[in-house]
């Protein structure tokens, strides 16, 4: 009731204010009301608009994870496992539906939802026809399409040439391998990292159905040639692709732009040296020009990719700019992939430093991108790499980051692998160039939900903390390390131990108030972690003398006598398994603690250990003598260990 | 063990940084990574640096002492590593513009001071000029050193980092790293306030951000040259992809490359909408009923038209069929075609039973007549 009363009031007021505004703006013609034309919205437009109102919240885990403290992943491994587990559940459901499709005959939805149907299963007895094959090709079901085609062949059913052509294109595009189902989003998100390694190697399947179809199709049209050439280029069967290309050229079969693009993209395999390769590219472009073909974005990217692999730096730079200029004249807007190739051309590991990234950013800053080339997703990660390793400049890095978070550009980050490399570069760069407080702000913002630092980056962060003497961050970083499962990295653990040993928190700084206690916890934590680790682990960490010495130092300073005793016992008992000896200072600190705790037995044990391990013992013996009122037995032991001299002094 | 690892350039930069910061704010010297900056400021900076070298002797001494004290001791306390680069700016400060120069033992410095006093007028400036002249020559002979340039500094840091220092030689109460940095920052602040009072001592331009690249250094005109192959774009024809299936697959691939796990519920709904799993917006309860959409609603509701031609104008059959039509018009579950077929089934039915019906009607009439007769009677 109340609501219904309030709402009309509000609407009236709103209308009134709208009317006022209208009057002000269109005073000349107050009577005329122009009704705007209806804007046709796609089904997802309103959802997109709503989605834009939901910002990214770095304090929360990604939406895909369950909103449950026990199910929020922290480490990189957990992130992967949890997401994949969810997807695997979906996969299992799909498998069940597929295996027991007879149980799912009911149709709940009207109109029926195709995505929920079980997949068609084709056997030797299946009734197949052209329409069925067409559907399979459209849905990119490579295996089924191949099966149905062979089935139709054995049954002696005719297949039209256009359908054969379609099948040829499908097989060439996917190289006879079943693509990953579009439903498996998580799998694609975590899997694409492998693609980088697979490329640049011949993977084309020789003598398969595609080539059979190619020979069968008569007369051969430009479409037939285009399909097979593009397929061979895509999977690096370069010699045969080029041979077919020349064959088509001699037969005066006119090929299209995309096919030229494929050939250009493999020129770096056809010609080893830089000059002949560039000449070949020019030759191909001239052919296109003679044929009256207008080059497109694909041509530019193919050219740039070929140029980026030219070893001759000066030549590569020159022609790269020429290509950009030429295509600008032709009205082709470069995509992010083009800039990616420009970056790889200009910023080489051993080449001179180039600021081309700054120019590129000036060009593209504030723009929103959609994907236009598969390699578009390589831009952001490469740009960040360049600003870290090539320019060492946080300002470009920040500009890149801003661009990435502009509009829907984040979609172009690629996959989880590229995303984490991107953040790795960003973190390493900021860690080196920003003041620590600023850097820690970024750290707090992005870790752990957006990015989990790898052990290497963690080491950089810890070192930065060390250099800045900001000890107060150490406990926080240590707990992060535990969560991210970095505590099995010996170098990291040693580094933390070294820092907490060598830097004593001072009581007069407010941020250091409870640090000593926390350092004790860390040291004890390290000890128990290494001591209790199970034998099943592949890479076990073992104690070193240095490590135990550091733990001992920290614990001694914290007056944790019982714990220090345990650590020393460990050091003493398993001398033969422990590599190296602790530093002398940690021994002194332990003895000091023994003195404070009035335990001469432990102090003498320590002295004995020092003597056995060749550490300076005279000063230690003196300390023991002065620190305690020793009993007869202890004096005898001391005498036994260091001789009479000290006692006489 | 740790020391050997530390010699990576990245770490060096880290170690150097506090010194750099302090130095930067105290004298505005360009940072060491300005290898790209133009020559002019560099020269100026060299000139300015000369006074700093006034204590280079003592620096060399310190270095020698460090070298001499190298030992096999395993590790080096942190404070030692940073100490040397940190101390330099302060030294520079003193040498360049404070009056404490006379306390120093160097002959050169004292001599220079005396000369400067003789000359009078701008005593301090003369002194500085003299010193810089002297020390510049001295420096030229040697390898670049101290904070003169990246290379020099690197090598020094390298040297120090690679060294192992006997700890017994270091001053007994070594401050912790934290204290040290704090002190450095405090002193930096002091210096800053002081420099603000006397800005004329700063001739070099201050660079606001040490790591910002010089934009002019490597600017590339991205769209400068041309290949000159496609000379007249007007004559070229744009052609769509001749391979339809390939094009379709390529677009599919591009789309999948930017489909990421949805980041909120709306994105999830977008994904489901695209996969056809949920109803599209705007919601319409006849969505997807494409066949039925072709049929007008009147065909569903006004069914009497199907009675035309066979059904009697009135009478019980008519009455019955009208009721059938009303019922069918309210039925949402069957198509208009099915409704029509249903009605036509009745037509055939009544057709086949025509004789029987006629008989029944006649009988009824007669019975009715009989009834009226009896009434009349």
UniProtKB/TrEMBL annotation, chain A:
Keyword Cell membrane found:
no
Q: Name one GO molecular function term.
A: ribosomal small subunit binding
List, in alphabetical order, the GO biological process terms annotated in this UniProt record: mitochondrial translation; regulation of translation
Residue ranges of PPR repeats:
221-255
Where does it mainly reside? mitochondrion
Q: Which UniProt keywords apply?
A: Mitochondrion, Repeat, Ribonucleoprotein, Ribosomal protein, RNA-binding, rRNA-binding, Transit peptide, Translation regulation
One CC-aspect GO term: mitochondrion
- What domain of life does the native source organism fall in? Eukaryota
A Pfam family: Rib_mS39_PPR
Which locations, inside or outside the cell, does it occupy?
Mitochondrion
Q: Which family does it belong to?
A: Belongs to the mitochondrion-specific ribosomal protein mS39 family.
Question: What is the official name of this protein in its record?
Answer: Small ribosomal subunit protein mS39
Q: Which organism is it from?
A: Hermetia illucens
Origin organism lineage:
Eukaryota, Metazoa, Ecdysozoa, Arthropoda, Hexapoda
TrEMBL record, chain B:
Q: Which UniProt keywords apply?
A: Mitochondrion, Ribonucleoprotein, Ribosomal protein, Transit peptide
A molecular function (GO) held by this record is: structural constituent of ribosome
Report the InterPro entries cross-referenced here: MRP-S31
Q: Where is the composition biased (Basic and acidic residues)?
A: 33-64, 98-110, 136-150, 179-203
Start and end residues of each stretch annotated as Disordered: 1-110, 130-218
What family name appears in the similarity comment? Answer: Belongs to the mitochondrion-specific ribosomal protein mS31 family.
Q: What is this protein called?
A: Small ribosomal subunit protein mS31
Instruction: Report the GO terms under cellular component.
Output: mitochondrial small ribosomal subunit
| Pfam short name (any one) | MRP-S31
Specify the signal sequence span.
Answer: none
Q: Where in the cell is it found?
A: Mitochondrion
Q: Does the keyword Transcription apply?
A: no
């Amino acid at each position: 009731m109340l609501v219904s009363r309030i709402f009309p009031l509000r609407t009236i007021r709103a209308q009134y204010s709208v009317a006022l505004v209208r009057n002000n703006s269109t005073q000349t013609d107050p009577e005329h009301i122009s009704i705007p034309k209806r804007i046709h919205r796609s089904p997802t437009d309103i959802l997109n608009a709503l989605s834009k109102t939901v910002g990214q919240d770095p304090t929360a885990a990604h939406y895909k994870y369950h909103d449950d403290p026990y199910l929020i992943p922290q480490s990189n491994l957990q992130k992967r496992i949890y997401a994949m587990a969810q997807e695997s559940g979906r996969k299992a459901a799909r498998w069940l539906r597929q295996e027991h499709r007879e149980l799912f005959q009911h149709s709940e939805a009207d109109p029926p939802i195709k995505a929920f149907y079980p997949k068609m299963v084709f056997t030797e007895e299946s009734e197949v026809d052209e329409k069925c094959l067409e559907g399979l090709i459209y849905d990119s079901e490579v295996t089924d399409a191949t099966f149905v085609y062979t089935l139709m062949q054995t049954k002696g059913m005719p297949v039209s040439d256009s359908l054969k052509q379609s099948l040829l294109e499908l097989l060439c595009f996917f190289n006879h391998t079943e693509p990953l189902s579009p439903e498996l989003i998580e799998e694609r998100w975590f899997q694409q990292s492998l693609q980088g390694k697979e490329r640049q190697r011949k993977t084309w399947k020789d003598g398969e159905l595609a080539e059979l179809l190619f020979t069968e199709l008569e007369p051969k049209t430009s479409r037939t040639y285009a399909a097979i050439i593009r397929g061979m280029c895509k999977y690096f069967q370069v010699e045969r692709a080029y041979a077919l290309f020349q064959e088509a050229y001699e037969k005066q079969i006119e090929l299209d732009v995309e096919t030229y693009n494929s050939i250009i993209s493999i020129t770096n395999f056809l010609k080893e040296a830089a000059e002949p390769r560039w000449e070949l590219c020019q030759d191909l472009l001239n052919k296109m020009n003679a044929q009256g073909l207008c080059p497109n974005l694909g041509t530019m990217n193919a050219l740039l990719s070929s140029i980026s692999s030219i070893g001759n730096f000066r030549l590569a730079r020159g022609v790269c700019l020429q290509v950009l200029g030429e295509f600008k004249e032709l009205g082709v807007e470069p995509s992010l992939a083009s800039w990616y190739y420009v970056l790889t051309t200009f910023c080489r590991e051993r080449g001179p430093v180039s600021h081309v990234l700054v120019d590129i950013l000036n060009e593209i800053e504030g723009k929103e991108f959609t994907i236009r080339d598969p390699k578009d997703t390589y831009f952001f990660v490469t740009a960040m790499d360049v600003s870290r390793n090539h320019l060492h400049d946080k300002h470009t890095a920040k500009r890149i980051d801003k661009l990435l978070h502009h509009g829907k550009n984040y979609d172009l980050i690629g996959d989880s692998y590229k995303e984490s490399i991107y953040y790795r570069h960003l973190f390493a760069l900021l860690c080196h160039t920003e003041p620590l407080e600023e850097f820690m702000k970024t750290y707090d913002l992005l870790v752990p939900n957006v990015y989990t630092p790898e052990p290497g980056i963690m080491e950089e962060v810890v070192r930065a903390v060390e250099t800045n003497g900001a000890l107060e961050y150490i406990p926080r970083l240590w707990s992060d390390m535990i969560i991210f499962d970095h505590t099995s990295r010996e170098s990291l653990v040693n580094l933390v131990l070294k820092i907490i040993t060598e830097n004593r928190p001072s009581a007069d700084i407010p941020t250091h108030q409870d640090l000593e206690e926390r350092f004790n916890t860390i040291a004890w934590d390290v000890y128990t972690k290494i001591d209790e680790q199970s034998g099943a682990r592949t890479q076990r960490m073992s104690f070193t003398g240095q490590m135990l010495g550091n733990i001992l130092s920290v614990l001694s300073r914290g007056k944790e006598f019982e714990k220090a005793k345990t650590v020393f016992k460990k050091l003493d008992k398993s001398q033969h398994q422990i590599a190296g000896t602790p530093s002398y200072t940690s021994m002194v600190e332990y003895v000091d603690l023994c003195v404070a705790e009035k335990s001469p037995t432990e102090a003498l044990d320590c002295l004995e250990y020092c003597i056995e391990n060749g550490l300076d013992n005279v000063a230690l013996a003196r300390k023991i003598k002065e620190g305690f009122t020793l009993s007869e037995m202890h004096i005898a032991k001391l005498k036994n260990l260091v001789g009479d001299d000290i006692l006489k002094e | 063990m740790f020391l050997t690892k530390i010699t990576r350039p990245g770490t060096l930069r880290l170690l150097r940084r506090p010194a750099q910061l302090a130095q930067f704010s105290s004298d505005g010297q360009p940072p060491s990574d300005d290898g790209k900056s133009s020559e002019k400021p560099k020269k100026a900076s060299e000139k300015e640096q000369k006074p700093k070298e006034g204590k280079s002797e003592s620096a060399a001494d310190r270095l020698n002492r460090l070298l001499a004290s190298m030992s096999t001791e395993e590790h080096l306390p942190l404070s030692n590593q940073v100490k040397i680069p940190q101390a330099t700016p302060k030294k520079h400060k003193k040498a360049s513009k404070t009056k404490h120069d006379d306390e120093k033992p160097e002959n050169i410095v004292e001599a220079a001071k005396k000369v400067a006093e003789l000359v009078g007028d701008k005593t301090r400036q003369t002194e500085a000029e003299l010193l810089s002249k002297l020390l510049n020559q001295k420096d030229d002979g040697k390898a670049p050193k101290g904070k003169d340039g990246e290379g020099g500094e690197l090598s020094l840091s390298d040297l120090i980092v690679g060294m192992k220092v006997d700890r017994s030689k270091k001053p007994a109460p070594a401050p912790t790293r934290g204290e040290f940095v704090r002190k450095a920052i405090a002193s930096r602040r002091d210096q800053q306030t002081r420099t603000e009072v006397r800005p004329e001592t700063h001739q070099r331009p201050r660079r606001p951000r040490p790591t910002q690249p010089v934009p002019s250094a490597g600017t590339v005109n991205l769209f400068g040259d041309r290949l000159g192959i496609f000379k007249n774009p007007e004559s070229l024809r744009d052609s769509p992809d001749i391979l339809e299936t390939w094009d379709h697959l390529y677009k599919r691939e591009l789309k999948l490359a930017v489909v990421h796990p949805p980041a909120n519920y709306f994105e999830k709904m977008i994904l489901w909408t695209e996969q056809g799993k949920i109803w599209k917006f705007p919601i319409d309860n006849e969505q997807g009923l494409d066949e039925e959409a072709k049929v007008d609603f009147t065909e569903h509701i006004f069914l009497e038209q199907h009675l035309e031609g066979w059904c009697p104008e009135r009478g019980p059959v008519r009455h019955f069929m009208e009721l059938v039509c009303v019922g069918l018009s309210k039925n949402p579950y069957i198509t208009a075609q099915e409704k029509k077929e249903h009605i036509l089934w009745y037509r055939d039915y009544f057709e086949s039973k025509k004789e029987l019906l006629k008989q029944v009607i006649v009988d009824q009439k007669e019975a009715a007549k009989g009834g009226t007769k009896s009434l009349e009677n």
